[in-house]
Amino acid sequence: MTDAAPNPDPVGVLLDVLALGETGARTSEDIFTAASHAMPNGRIFGGQVLGQAVVAAARTLPPDRAPHSLHGYFLRPGDVGKPLTLSVDRIHDGRSFSRRRIQAFQDGEPIFSGIASFQDDDPGLDHQVPMPEVPAPEELPGPDPRMGRRPEAAFAIRDNPIEVRHVGGHIYVAVDDPAPRQAVWTRLRRPIGDDAMLHRAALAYVTDFTIQEPVLRAHGVPWATPGIRTASLDHAIWWHRFGRADEWMLYVQESPSARGGRGLAQGQLYSRDGVLLATVAQEIMLRVPGQG
């Protein structure tokens, strides 16, 4: 089997899907249109919809009111071959906070529903949990390019707009040390400019990649397991401080529980100099053949 032609600019593709169209139509909600980037399985990547939801909600607010939280549910699988419609309901606007409900539709049915909260940059108490000490990204090997011959692996390793380097080894084909935790260095593969809202939307995109892996690691299940099925059920992000999505971030992740075909994962994203940028939580559906 020969390698498929690599995507020359996967970050450019990400920026294209985050550049929402505006129809000019508005009843009780603001309406936007969007496209999707290709995925090997034909299903929309959840992080894409998260990023698009941030952009759509932000379009209804002044630029100095930034997102501090997003809570969303993935309701149906999305089809990358069909256009998306996003609606934004302006639930509340206060002196310091604004809330927006965002829904994404295909064929008239919602595939995602979430609520985002935005806040002005207000003074207040300030503390954070320190970043753990790990090897620098330059000290870690990149993924083996030979693994990119399978379409699924090609996206994860080569054609994804996100670059990832696992601390302690990846789990694409095997899990050497089963444990319900991991850490990865991650960033977009090239700079995307200085638009702060774009970086927050891109960070939302990044948070959905690798967050499922602590659940798999806990049970020694690699991504290459035949017949494995996963799907994101819900996702929450809390933005604490601004950070650039195109610079190295440490994504520290753990899974406190798995049961009933579901697994919960939590994560913290740190800038390279140790600033806690965001906290993430996600529950997934997980089906592994031969296991309860």
Automatic annotation (TrEMBL):
Q: Which residues form the Acyl-CoA thioesterase-like N-terminal HotDog domain?
A: 39-119
Name of the protein described by the UniProt record: Acyl-CoA thioesterase 2
According to the record's subunit comment, the protein's assembly and interactions are:
Homotetramer.
Keywords, A to Z, come to: Hydrolase, Lipid metabolism
* Top-level taxon of the source organism: Bacteria
Q: TM segments?
A: none
What biological processes does GO assign it?
Answer: acyl-CoA metabolic process; fatty acid catabolic process
Enumerate the residue ranges of region (Disordered): 122-146
